[in-house]
Write a structure and sequence with these properties.
heterodimer, A: alpha/beta, Rossmann fold, 2 domains, six-stranded mixed beta sheet, 17 helices, 20 strands, B: mainly alpha, ABC transporter involved in vitamin B12 uptake, BtuC, disordered N terminus
Amino acid sequence: MRITLRDIRKQYGKVNANDGIDLEIDEGSIHGILGENGAGKSTLMKVLAGYTAKTSGTILLNGRPADYDHPAQATRLGIGMLYQDPLDFPPLTVLENFMMGLAHGLVSREETTRPRLKDLADSFGFHLNPDDVVERLTVGERQQLELVRLLALGVEVLILDEPTTGISNLQKQALFRALRKLAEERKTILLVSHKLEDIEALCDRITVLRRGRVEGEMVPPFEGARLLKWMFGTEPAPPPCFERRTGEGSMMLAMEGVSGLGGRAGLNSCDVAVRQGEVVGLAGLEGSGQALFLRLASGLEKPEKGKIRLAGEDMTGKDHHAYRGRGVTFLPAGRLEEGLMPGLTLTEHFALQQQKGMVIHWPEAWQRAKRGIERFRIKGSPDSAAESLSGGNQQRLLLALLPADPLLLLLEHPTRGLDVDSVQWVWEKLMAYAAQGTGIVFSSAELDEIFQMADRVLVFFNGAVVKDVRTCDTTIEDLAKAIAGKG
Amino acid sequence: MALFPEYSGPKELALRVLLISGGVFILTSLVLLVAGTPPWPAFYHLFVGALGSWNKLAQVLMVWIPLTLCACGLLYSFRIGLWNIGVEGQVVAGAIACTAVLRFGVESGSPALMLMVAFASGILGGGVWAVLAGLLKTKGGVNEIFGGLGLNFVAQGITLWLIFGPWKRPGVGSMSGTELFQESLWLPTVLSGRLSPVGLVLTVLTLVAAAWVLNRTRLGLSLKGIGSNARAAYLHGLNPNTYFILAMGMAGGCAGLAGAFQVAGVYHRLIPVISSNYGYLALLVVMLANYRVWGSPWIAFFFACLNVGSIQLPIVLKLDSSLSGIIQGALVLTTLLVYGLRK
C-alpha cells in the first residue's frame, strides 16, 4: 500500500507536535523516520495508526483519502502499529493474546488458531511457545508476538516505534530479517527510531523530522554526518570555556562501579564523580539509564553492585532519607505525580517543611507560603491547591520548597513542558545554587539545554555512560553521535 | 480521597442537605408503598421511637457513643488513605481486652481504677489489632482491606471461642455471652441505667482530639500529605510506612475504646455480637461526612436515631425493622446522586 501524508498537523494545547508534515511512503519499502526526542515522530505514527486524532491534514492510502480516528479502523484499512511498549495482555498466554482481536463470530477456535500462530512464527524464525504466559516473556518475544498478531489481522502497513530498544542483539537480527522478508512481500514498513545505525542498516529511504517538520530526506548511500545535523541542527556555541567552572572543588558525589536494575536498560558499572558547584547534564535517549542514575544518586534505588559516596562518606545501601539528611534533594519529572501532594494547599506544603514541634504554626506557614509566592513569582495564592497550578508554577513551587543550601540537587527534566520565561527563570535559580557550591545534576531531552547550561555532559547509551566530557571540549555533533550509539 | 471533593459554602450545603432529605423521603416512601404500608405512620413511629422521650434519646446516645468513637478512629485511617475495614474486628478486640480485665472483678480497692485499667486495655487491644493489619500491609504487602477483613473473622472467632471455652459461664457456655461482671464494675449510668455520662464525655473528648490532631498538628498534616501522594511525601522527608502503622494504631485505639464501652457500659459482659456492626456503619458515617471531623457526629446521630427508632416498628406497624437499613441505603444513594448532579 502506498501512503501519502499531506500537511499533517497535530496540536497539543499550544504545542505543535506535527507542524505540517508531507510524506510519501512507497509500497514494499522500509521507510525510516529519524529525529531526536520530541521531534514529532511518535505523534505522526500515532496519527497514522489511528491512535491519535490529527488536528488537520489528509492521509491518502493508495491515492484515496482515508478518514479514521480509531486503531481498529486503521487495522481494518490494513495499518497496524507495534508500540514501544507492546500492547498485549501480560497475564494471558501467547495463544490467547494472538487470538485477541482475531476472532470472527462468537466462538474463537483454539484448534485452528494454534497452527496458524505456529506457521506464522516459524516463517520468521520466531520461537514462540503458545502456552507461555506473556508476562514472563522478554520484550523482544512480546514484540515478535505482536508482530505475528498484526500480520494475522492482515495488515499491509506496519509501523514500528523504537523496536530495537530493550531487545537482545539476536532478537534484533531476527526482527530485521523478518522486516526485510515482509518488504519483499510488498508490505510497507515504517520504522521510527533515534538509533542511526539501525535505520541505516535497514531502510530504503530516511526522513528526518525536527520540531514537528520534515527536515530532510535521503536515499542510500546515507551520510551519517548530514543526518545528525538534520536531527540536532546547528546550535549556538556554548559560552567560552573560561566562564565555566573547572570542576576542581571538593567531591560531592562519587559513584564507583555502580550497577543497578530498573528502566529498560538498567545501569552498568558506572563511574562518575560530581564536584562542588559543578553543573552536570545527563544526555541520552529516553530510558538509556539517566533516570536510574538520578534515582541511585538520591538513594531512591539501591545499587546491585558498586559504591556510592557523598562528600566522602559511604552511603551505599542507605535509603533516600539518609541521603536527604546529607543534603541531597531529588526533583522528579512527574511534578504532580511524585513531587507535590494534590489536594494540599501551598500553605500546607510549606507547613510540612516545619521540622520541630507537635503543633503547626499556621500563620507562620501562611506567611512563608506568601513569601515563597512572591520570591518565586508563583501564580497562585497560599490557599490554592497544588494541582490547580500550571506546570511551570508547580516547578516554581517545588523550587521554593528546596532547602537553603543543599549539597547536591538532582533534577529530572527540570524544564520539561515549561514556557520560555519559566525555563530561563528556573535556570537562574539553579545557577544561583551552583554559585554557592551546590552540585547540580540534571537530565534533559533537549541537547541544546544541556550544551548551554552544563559544565560537563554524561551521555548514556543502553544503560552505560559512553561519554563523560566537559562541555567546552565537545561539540553538538559529537554528543549527537554518542547519543545515537556511534560514539 | 474525598468522596465529594469540592466545598461550596453554607448555602449550597443547606440546599444539598434539603435535596438529600427530600430524596431519601421519596425513595423510602416508594419502598413502603410497595410493601403496602402507609409511609406517614412509619416515619412518625420511627421519629417517636427515637426521640419521643428523654429515655429514648438516652438510648440513641448509647448507640451514638460507639458509632462516633469508631468514626473518630476511621477519620485517622481515611486521612492517610487507608480503608480500615478491620475497624469491626478492632472493636471486638477492644471488647475482649476490656473483658479480660473486668472479669477478674475487684475484691477491694477502687472500681474506678479498675475501669480505667480496663478501658486502657480495650484501647490497647483495638490498637494492636489494627497495627497487625498495618504490619500486614507495610511488611507483607497485604492490602489493608483484605488484612482487616481477615482479622475481623479471626476476632469474631476468638470471641466465640472465649464465650464457649475458657470464659464460659459456670456450667455450660451459651450464646448469651460470658457471666455478668460484678455490678461495681458497670460504667455508672443516669436515667435509670440508660445513659453513661462517662461514655458521653469520653466520646466528645475523642472527637475534639481528632479535630485537633487532624487540623492543627504536624502529625495530622503528615497523614493528609501521605494520603494525597505517598511518593511525594517520601521525597519531602516523611516515611509513609511509619505513619501507616501510626494511623492504624490510632484508629484501632478509638475502635477499641468503642468495644470497651460496649462491654463495660452496655452489656456488662462479652457477647458474640459485641460490636453490633457499628464498625461497618461508622465507615458509612465517615464517608457521608465527606471525611470531615465535624460532619461525623451528626451523621452518626442520625444513624443512631434510625437504629433505635426502628426497634418499635415490628410491634406497632408489623413492619420489619430493616426499614432503617433501607433509609441508610437511600441516604447513600441520594447523597451520591445530589453531589454528582450539583457538581
